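As agreed, record passed on underneath.
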Amino acid sequence: MSIPSRNADPEHILRANRTFFVTTKTYMGKRLLQTDQNATLLIDVLRSCVRTGRFTLHDFVIMPDHIHLLLSTSGDLTIEKAMQFIKGGFSFRLKRETGYTGEVWQRGFSDHRVHDPDSFANHRRYIADNPVKAGLATSPDEFPWCFRALAGQKASEHKTQS
């Protein structure tokens, strides 16, 4: 079996400001992320990782049985380790806080390295359109479990407080 190219050259494993489009699925496609409680918990895990400086999260969407992320890792963090923080953190908290006893995530994840602004914009568009294509929303702005909607909600709350 060949080694994935991202691991073939040690210089490519750790390099400053590497951006990835990542998808990971729940175990056997279970719709674990469709409840407000579980989606909110996953968002809290993502925020915690960002707050501690583990990576920069540019965009995301939480679908009922998978997530898409657009994130950048620093030079000392691999994409594998970033995903371990997300998936492991969510699994641990889901089991501790809700008593869930089953498997949470499918093994592994898929990632695509983002090399230029066009690729970045295309992946953001894909993330925004995902709930619309799945019939979960009529526009990207109305789907509650995505970066776009949460950023809009935060801006609106900030505006009313001013």
Residues 1-10 have pLDDT under 50 and may be disordered. The longest helix spans residues 79-98.
